[in-house]
Every structure is written in C-alpha cells, then in structure tokens.
Amino acid sequence: MPEPLRLGIAGLGTVGVGVVRIIRQHADLLSARTGRQILITAVSARDKSKDRGVALGSYDWEDDPVSLATRDDVDVFVELVGGDEGPAKKAVEAALAAGKDVVTANKALLAMHGQSLAEAAEQKGCALRYEAAVAGGIPVIKSLTEGLVANDVTRVMGVMNGSCNYILTRMETAGLSYAEVFAEADGLGYLEADPQLDVGGIDAAHKLAILATLAFGTKVDFDGIVLEGIDRVSIEDIRAAADMGYKIKLLGVAQKTGRGLEQRMQPCLVPDSSPLGQLDGGTNMVVLEGDAVGQIVLRGPGAGEGPTASAVMADVCDIAKGWRGPVFGLPAGQLTTATPARTQLPAPYYLRMSLDDKPGALAKVAKVLGEAGVSIDRMRQYGHEDTSAPVLIVTHKTTPDALRTALDAMQSTDVLAGSPVALRIEAV
Ligand code: NAP
Ligand code: HSE
Question: Which of 2, 112, 123, 156 is most buried, judging by how many CB atoms fall within 10 Å of its CB?
C-alpha cells in the first residue's frame, strides 16, 4: 500500500469537526476507496481548551495555522478557518509555497484571491481543491470540471445561500415581514457572524464568481457581479408574486452574452412550478446548462457539518488517489479576463405599484410603458378600501434600459402612490 496521506487541519468549528468525525468513522472505507490510509497529523484552532465533542488528543496541536501548513509531516493542508484575509490566506499561501496540496471550503478566499492562489498552486504542481466552497454538499465543482467537461457551458444559476432561501420561504409560509424573519433567523443562529454576508448576497456572490470561472474560463471576477441582497423584499411582493404564479428567490445567474459576461446575484421571480420555485427552506439548488447535455439540476444541503465535510473529504480523497488538475479547470495562465456585460439580457419583469384610484390613472401608466417600448403581458388590479389601487403588471421581455425609462417616466405621471417595485423574472 502507498504511504498514508497526512493531513493538517486548521479550523475546528462546524466543518473542521465534521471532517475529523468522517476520518475517524470511515477510516477503513476511505482507505479501501483511495488505496491509502488517510491520517490527521496535526490540528489548529484558536482555543486549545475548547471541548469540540470529538477526541483530538492523538493529534499534534499548533496555535498558528501557518506553522501547521508548513510542517514536514503534513502532505495536505486543510483550511477550514474562513475569511478572505488573515490567517486563512496566510496559511494557504504558506502551504502552497511549501509545496503542500491544499483543500479549503473558503469561498470568500477563492472569490477574492482565486487567480493568484491558482497561479501559486500550479507553479508548484500542487492541488488546490474547494468542492465544499460552493453549495456545501452538492458536488457542483466536480460536475462542471468532470461531468460536463465536454460541454460549452451556456449558463449557470442557482440558489446558493440557504439562509436567504430560509428567510424568503419563512416569510411566505408564515406571512411575516422581512424584519421579523431576519430577527428570528439570527436568534436561531442561522446567519453568519456578519449577517450582511448572507442577506446582502455576498456569500452567494462569492460562490457564483467561482462557478462562472469554471464555466466560462474567465478569471474570478467578484467585482463584476451585479449584487443585490434580499433586505428590500417585502411580504407584499412575496404574496403578489405568488398570486401571479411565481416565487421570489435570491438567484445567482452567470452567462456569456454578446455583450460580455453577465454575472448577477439578485432577488428574481421564478415560476412557482419550476425546480427553483419548489425549493423551500435552507436547501441549495444549482442549475447547469451545456450545449450537449441541455439542463441539469443539482439539489441538496448547502451547509452544515456533515454535508460540508463530505465535500471536503471528496477533495481529500481525490488527492489521495493522485488526481490532479488545474485549479479552475484550465491552467491559470489560460484564464481570460472577463469583460463584464454592460447590460443584462432582456427579460420579462414584474411590476407592483399603487395607483391613485381616479379615472385615467391606469391609462397613464400603460401609456408610459408603451412609449418606452415595454409591452404588458398580464395585469391585475386588486380590490381596495382606500384611495389607491394595488396593481400588478407582468411585462413581455424587455431590456433593463427600456424598463428604467418607463419607471422614470411613471414617477412624473402624478398617479403613483409611492415608488413602483420592479423585479426581473428569470426563465428557468
Ligand atoms: P466556524 O465554525 O466559525 O469555525 C472556524 C474555526 O476556525 C474555529 O475552530 C476557530 O477556532 C478557527 N479559527 C479562527 N481563527 C483562527 C486563527 N486565527 N487561528 C486558528 N484557528 C482559527 O466556521 P465553519 O462554519 O466551520 O466554516 C469554516 C469554513 O468553511 C469557512 O470558510 C466557511 O465559509 C466554509 N463553509 C462553511 C459551511 C458551514 O455550513 N458552516 C458551509 C460551506 C462552507 P476556535 O474554534 O478555537 O474559535
Ligand atoms: N451562510 C451560508 C448559507 C453557509 O446560508 O448558505 C454556507 O455557505
């Protein structure tokens, strides 16, 4: 049997403890499947005295993840600390410089420094693997780099932040406001220490940036993502969208268009009968489209100890088997610089507005839409008791520019009570 594969694990929180558990519980299975023993040499975290519910006494302890990453008796440095700067970045860089293979679950690190880390890894002939960084337990990185390797990928999209999907689902099922459900989710510990990473769409956008690189062979371009979180999604919109046959999701979409690479993470409407529309709670879903395969839909747990550790171990096992390849599917030097699309492809839009209930109000709105070239597909006005009438409009496909022109013109019609809400409807 070949030499054992020796791991150094930095970070013993949710994911790190999960990895230790799998290695202990499945030692024989892992060895049978990879042809080598997988051992832990040493571990690192902040607090050595913390009871983590798993026996760590047989492993050496390092206070400093950099010292762990560069030990002679560590073959693979497993980074489960998190954060795009600080100890995680320093230790991963140190590991690669020392010629160690690296496995990480850190989407923030890859989204911000993916290119330089990939260059460093490939220069040293090291693996840098990150299956757990996108959609937790769903094997989406392998799907793109292996299963769909023969495809020209045309679009990747998905719901990749379980906390946001939980919040939107709970608003819908309990009829609660965003603020109420946010407070509830925070109290239950469902949100990151900085909740803006979740509700601001940043965590999901980190994941989208990584998928776009794999799908389109472009350098990771987090700054090129059009980003909007869920904090402005109202219960009124969730109800109204449902009434028109849609669900609101924080949806990430990346696609190559004639105008460049379109990457966006924003609340969108999707048909409620579609797989994405049916996705409730904290589950993730990634939809991949390729010229040969058509569309595939991957659904599963995007977070949590077991699912995330499962993905980390998939990378560890590939390294144990000697499977190597460029970090982002193509050699880092061949990744091109993305040209961000100047504008989004045309789409239908959902509009919700309150109109003064007086003769000609609706006609004025229809007129400005028509003048901007925005065509109405469906429209609904609801009964009401005060002086303004709630109106919903679903447009035919239109450009964001035409829609903006119409919305600006609408503001000066003197028939609107408040500002209209506009949300993109994604074809899924
Ligand atoms: P976590 O529970 O907060 O654990 C972080 C660990 O890092 C803790 O053990 C902490 O030590 C340790 N740490 C922090 N600063 C350190 C330092 N300066 N030196 C050494 N150790 C340090 O985080 P997690 O949820 O396991 O997430 C780990 C990574 O996986 C992150 O990149 C995260 O984005 C990613 N991820 C997590 C999930 C998930 O479901 N949790 C899913 C996908 C990806 P102490 O315990 O002593 O404080
Ligand atoms: N906060 C993230 C989520 C954890 O809710 O999906 C996994 O990245």
Answer: 156
Of the listed ligands, the closest to the CA of 282 is 2
Ligand 1 center–CA 12 separation, angstroms? 6
Tens digits of residue pLDDT in 44-100? 999 999 999 999 999 999 999 999 999 999 999 999 999 999 999 999 999 999 999
pLDDT at 86: 97
Cα(160) to ligand 2 centroid in Å equals: 8
Pick the CATH number of 349-425 from 3.40.50.720, 3.30.565.10, 1.10.10.10, 3.30.70.260: 3.30.70.260
Catalytic residue list contains 207: yes
Of residues 62, 85, 49, 83, the one with CA closest to residue 7:
62
pLDDT for res 114: 98
pLDDT bracket for residue 384 (50, 70, 90):
confident
* Ligand 2 neighbourhood includes 192 CB (under 6 angstroms): yes
At 343, the pLDDT band (50, 70, 90 cuts) reads confident
Buried b (16+ CB within 10 A) or exposed e, 212-250: bbbbbbbbbbbebbbbbbbbebebebbebbeebebbbbb
* Pocket of ligand 1 contains residue 304 by CB under 6 Å: yes
What are the strands, taking DSSP E only, across 278-414?
A: 283-290, 294-301, 349-356, 376-381, 388-395
Tell me the average pLDDT of the chain.
Answer: 96
Q: Is the pTM higher than 0.90?
A: yes
Specify whether domain 5-133 bears CATH 3.40.50.300: no
